[in-house]
Every structure is written in C-alpha cells, then in structure tokens.
Amino acid sequence: MVRMRPAELTRAVAAALATAASLGLTADDAVVLHDSNRLTLRVLPCDVLVRVAPAGHRAARFEIEMAQRLAGPGRPVATLDPRVAPRGYERDGFVITFWTYYGPAGGTIAPADYAAALGRLHAGMRGLDVPTPHARDRVREARQLVASRSRTPALTDGDRELLGTTLERLGRVLDGRADEQVLHGEPHPGNVLSTKDGPLFVDLETCCRGPVEFDVAHAPEEVAGHYPGLDRDLVHDCRVLVLAMITTWRWDRDDDLPDGRHLAVDWLDRLRAALAGDDRALRIAPPT
Q1: Which helix H or strand E contains 16, and what residues bound it?
Q2: Distances (CA, A) of 72 to 75, 192, 223, 262
Q3: Side-chain-side CA neighbours of residue 227 (13 Å)
Q4: Fewest CB within a 10 Å sphere: which of 4, 208, 221, 242?
Q5: pLDDT digit string (tens) for 104-155?
C-alpha cells in the first residue's frame, strides 16, 4: 500500500472540496478516512464520501460501473451519491468520485450476517457479463513482485523461494474451474461496513473472476461455516494463497503500510506455520 505524500494529499483534499462545491454540494471541510493509493474523505457539511485517485487511476470508471450494475434492493453494496451524476470528475491531476456516506452502526458483524451478505453479493454478481481480471492475475502480480529483487530487496533468498513456490503451487487451484464468476476480490473486514441497513461492501475496484471460495478466504474464518455449498479444501488452499499474497505486498519496497515491515516478518512466520499444517496461523487481520 502506497500512501499519498503530504503535498499531494493537500492538493487532493483541495481538489475534492472544489469539485464538490462546483457540483452544488456544501463543502467546507474534509475528514481523511483512509489514505492509500487513493484518498477517501468525508466531506462536510454535505456529508458525502469522496474518493480521490491520481488521474491515471483507471479503476474509478470500472468501480462506478460495478456499483451501478449491482444497485438495487437487497444488494449489499455501498451506493453512489444520488446528488451528483455518476461519473469520475477530473481536477488538478486527480479523478474524483462521490459515494453515499454511511455512519458506523457500531460493533462487529456477526459471521452469519457477514456470510449472508457475501452470498447475496455473489448472487447479484453471478449473472454479470462484464470484463474483469481473473484472480490468477493477482497471483501473477505477486509472483512478479517476489521475482524482482529490485522491488523486494529485503527478502532473503530462502523467503523469496518460499513465497514464489507457494504462489506458484497454490495459484494452480484457481485454474480451469467451471464454477467461476465475478467476485468482489477482497471482501475482508476492512472492505465491509457495518451499517443500520446491514453489512455493505465497498471498494468494488478489486472485482475479479474466480471461484467464490477465493472471496470467502478473505473473510474471517468463522464466516465460511455459514456460507453454504463451499469446497472446504479449496477455501483452505485459498486462505494460504491469500496469506502468501498479502505477505508479498508487505515486502514491496514502496509499501508504506504502518508497521508494514513488522507484519511482513510476522506473516512469513505464519505462512510457514500454515504450510506445516497449523491452521491457527491463518487467523490474521488483512490490511485495510
């Protein structure tokens, strides 16, 4: 995860406020909710959630399209703000999108509710005919990162081999499956909002194609027990695969997730334990 630099962040906030005001929204202040490759803001007093990404960030249009396709009663996805036209607005080198702000409902989401919401999301995605990357593409990107000594200079030879071998071997479980469909891609707890309307999924830019077990592997372990019809062996393999992937991201020299290097070391240890048969090592909180 790469955060915006301070000067870039200041420009991004200014661009968001100016764009909101130009669209007739009262925008006097912005609260930073999340800062990574794109910025998430709560703009006040109009109370809109705004995402700001570099203008070259191609996922904004895709995310808007997915949100529109999935909109409707019973669909557990965050919606676009109805006060502005549903598109990306370019300003000062950024692309800006506007979403409904949901105040936190408090408390954690019960595993049964999490599973039910994820099941409804998958049901809504099952009939979508939209070009998406495949989950294998994400595995391939992780393998390329591991293979690049310049991008992952702190990895030892042994750890590089462990990650590369695990990604290659377990990536094959995603090959040639007849049960593929459109997925969220990263439905971990950081991408699920607890709202008065129930759990809602955000960050649809990560949508990809693959078996539903790949999505379930991102959720807390208890969720799988409430999701019907799963291939349990595939869920387990995908959990180890996801652990190898997110561990790889932490070794990227450009990653600046707080405490990221500590997580990189800890997750490598957990990956070794998981490969040795200790499933307790798979109980980790993915980065948000």
Answers
A1: helix 6-22
A2: 6, 18, 24, 42
A3: 26
A4: 221
A5: 887 889 999 999 999 999 999 998 999 999 999 999 999 999 999 999 999 9
